[in-house]
Input
Amino acid sequence: MSDTRTDTATLLTLTFVVSFCSFAYEFVYSELLTVMYGGTVTQYVITVGLYFFSLGIGAALSDDLDGANLGGNFFRTEVLLAAAAPAGFLLIVGLNSVRIPQAVPAEVIWTVARLPVVVVGFLSGFELPLLTRMFDELDDDGSATPSWLRTAGTRIHDFVVAAVGTLWTVERTEGRRSGLSVILAMDYVGGLAGAVVYARVLYPGIGLIPTIFVLALLNGVAALVFVAHFGEWSWWPFSDAGASVSAATGGNATDTTDSARADRSLSAARVSKALLVVCLLLTATYAGVVAKHDAADERLSQLYLEQQIENEYPPGAMRATVTSQETTAYQHVIRYNRTWTGTGPNPHFDGRTERCLRLGAAVQLCESWADSYHEGLVDVPMSLVDPGPDTKVLVVGGGDWIAIDHLREYGVTVDHVDLDGEFMRDAKTDPFFGRWHDDAYEYDRLNTTVADGYRYLQETNETYDLVLLDVPGATDDDLLTLYSTEFYRSVRTHLSEDGVAVTWGYSPDAYPEHHKAFVNTVGAAGFTNELSYWVREDLDDDGETERVEQFYVLAPGERPRLTGDGATRYVRAREEHYAAVEWRAVPHYRGVRENSIFHPNYDILVDT
Output
């Protein structure tokens, strides 16, 4: 028989570990569903709600578990969690790695993708009641609880009671607290640790995929530590005591209840021996995955990304191969090659391969349209301002430095603001970007600030003749600020008397609801006039240009035409196209709310 104090300390440590895993699983699934389906608020709220609902169901049903086999049930729970959590993670990834027939209702996919949350929450609900009951059996007189924990618990309890007593009538109770209060204390501490370590260490340090295997490994280790330490206990199905009870009931059982309990113990022992082998295999496998977490993360990520990264094209039209990926503090950077197979809507592209860059869920740059995009962003609106050092331009985003290179040709003064300093540093020496930015970061009239664009505009007193918004689409919550009424109002406030702002925009044909929300938002911010234009490029070398990207010039009043006396060389060379582009009043669409920081148009911009 092991020392009771050591047994108690082991149970408390196991409580901390399983609570750590339980809380962290909740965040892993929330983030995974956000990555797969977008909408951080939606995914986190629904996941947390489902998780706690399932946790409560599991806890409520835990009383029906065999009280004579508490240890065996706890062991089974940990093994099942170690198996189910990574399996559920891979199920969600798999649902987004294959093309599901359109006949399958979206509600079915939504439900299946959240089943792992329910399963893991349900199993986690068993843990605390089982641990509490085992702790009560151990510490029936309170002497096994470490003195420091008893003292700390008493002091905390007295403090809380005193605080509660200022508002409610309380009655102090004497005597030892039940095991529930001690186990709950460790559970809450473990949950806090799981949340902090996940947010500050695991997710930013090793990524989402290795994290799920780290947590499953901890569940497996917890199960093995439990069986190694408590193997001789009478309520543990591997124990000699359990076997002797079974043998005794063969001919000397005195009542049918003891005989039935012994039969259950034998059955549980047979199952648990098989589970022990499973636990050992799972734990060894997860240890190997965690030891090689970089390779595992890269390979599993590539399998998913290569299936989904170009899913806006028809099935089979594009083949993608991920060449590298890394995660900065603010975004997931993916470099890949895509090859046209000739089965899509553009047979002229058959066999063509090009390199592309993706930031998070949005394509940022591809070789075929890198030039035309930045010509549309910079060279077209420069027709509306005077070139030269007295002209001040603000670039929000543009961490690849390519827009800066285009502005350098006009000799203007540039303030450049981008949040991701790590990406900006890498782009300086990356050959993929270097072919376009030509070391523009060394431009002598450039002032670069690593900061959030919205905060920068809140703090600066500068005014600008041209503001260029070189930012990704509103694909997640972190970008909603840059599509808010408050942000566009700040942009308008910092424009000079004749200044304009330029941004890439959602096409009303391809994204009608996004377009309506965008237009209503800039209108609410005080922009009364807009000039919409497409940049065109002969992408398939057939002598005909195709639409590439749509841009919007925004102004709080009347402005000159693009083809006036100040037209740039780029616009003059395409005068036939840009002469037809005219300013018009910013429209307002009924039934679509503008996007605000405190009341985001979430269901349209992100959760679609």
In short: The first strand starts at residue 318 and ends at 327. The chain has three domains: 1-141+179-232+270-300, 312-359, 367-606. Residues 232-270 have pLDDT under 50 and may be disordered. The CA atoms of residues 285 and 560 lie 67 Å apart.
